[in-house]
Amino acid sequence: MPASRSTLRRSLTAVAATSLLVGALGACGYGSQAKAQDKTVPVARGEKVGGLDEVKIGYFANVTHATALVGLQEGVFQKELGGTRVKAQVFNAGPSEIEALNARAIDIGWIGPSPAVNGFSRSKGQNLRIIGGSASGGVSLVVHADRIKSLDDLKGKRLATPQLGNTQDVALLNYLSGKGHRVEASTGKGDVTVLRQDNKEIPLSFKSGAIDGAWVPEPTASKLVADGGTVLLDEKKLWKDEKFVITNIIVRQEFLDQHPDVVEAVLRGSVKTNAWIKANPDKAKASVNAKLKADSGKELPAQVLDRAFRNVEVIDDPLASTLREQALHAQKAGLLKDPLLDGIYDLRPLKKVLGTAGGPTVEDAGLGVK
């Protein structure tokens, strides 16, 4: 059952595990994690929105960030912004993107729910707002089938997640707790050993046999399957209607206050990109791969891209009730204490865009600005 609103209003008090997570903000300089705008981004043409020269957008080079990848690759955002130039930056982890947002190095970003909640709580609700959804699903527990034959075989095994306290880490800790397995969140030690490794390192650990499995997003999950892994659990099976938010759109509060028309333009680009992806899946898949190659220098093999793209659903709805539940999972795991959630959403710009586009209504689960 959801926690009471009064409980959720309390300010964040980090336990030791959370201190480790937030400490990554200082150790992980966003400059080293970000890549400047590449030549694939179309040139800004036409009138500047609100007279603004540029808008700085952050995202990950992940299939779960397909909206950002395709919207940039196909020039949808730039078209909506006219003469206001898009400056894009690629990040490897949520904490570094939150740091960049707080430092005004980016204005708008695509990011997972756990970093968004951490960033909002840490700033006592002052620095950012979630303004829309972007993706649902695309997370699996992939294992060596000869070592783990069923979900009852997890005790004593070594499972990897991408980062301490990230969205997948929280999901795995919550699942293990529900199965009766005790794991100390900050160290990952217990009935099951949880190892935190970068998404780039996990496939190497899996192939070498150093880990028995991993709870990971796309395309890492599909890379493990291509290397002989078996999907033991698709996380969407744990959620009502098989939907849960994996990627949100966030904005600096100051930027939203000063440039609401620019925020609306980016959201229009997001909604139009999602519609194009759904109407043109093959072209969208190729666009994702082209952008991944531009960002990292490497394309995904067809067998990995096909499966990863199929497992991620692009959405406009932020699925706010699932973010609330994910925050409660983090609290239960000991990674958050009384997470601040009230006011984390400002869906007024998205509702305006969807109203113009004749789209469905979206809800903030009672966590919107007043």
Automatic annotation (TrEMBL):
Tagged with keyword ATP-binding: no
Residues spanning the membrane: none
Cellular localization per UniProt: Cell inner membrane; Periplasm
Coiled-coil regions listed: none
Keyword Signal: yes
Any one cellular-component term (Gene Ontology): plasma membrane
Keywords on record: Cell inner membrane, Cell membrane, Membrane, Signal, Transport
A Pfam family: NMT1_2
Domain of life: Bacteria
Protein name, as recorded: NitT/TauT family transport system substrate-binding protein
Annotated source species: Streptomyces candidus
